[in-house]
Write a structure and sequence with these properties.
mainly beta, single chain, 1 helix, three-stranded antiparallel beta sheet, DNA-directed RNA polymerase
């Protein structure tokens, strides 16, 4: 007599797996020189943001990342293409 092994259950998969939450990159335009500053959202709140083109101090990351941004204390404006 041969014993039959139990059938293996099929593996289930998700049709629409959840997407990881990624913070959008924010693009700002430096007011003094017009250079583009890219913020990834990984910056810490007290970190100073500087323009990569002219090295001007634009503000702190907390001011850029607050909702709404603290535009009175930032030396940059949102960049739209």
């Amino acid at each position: 007599m041969t014993e039959e092994l139990p059938r293996k259950r099929p593996l289930l998969s998700l049709k629409n797996p959840p997407k990881p939450k990624v913070k959008p990159t924010l693009r700002w335009k430096c007011k003094p020189c017009g250079g583009i500053v890219v913020l990834t959202g990984k910056e810490t709140e007290p970190e100073v943001i500087r323009c990569p083109a002219c090295n001007a101090r634009l503000g702190k990351a907390g001011q850029f990342l607050s909702d709404p941004p603290d535009v009175d204390h930032i030396r940059a404006r949102k960049f739209t293409e």
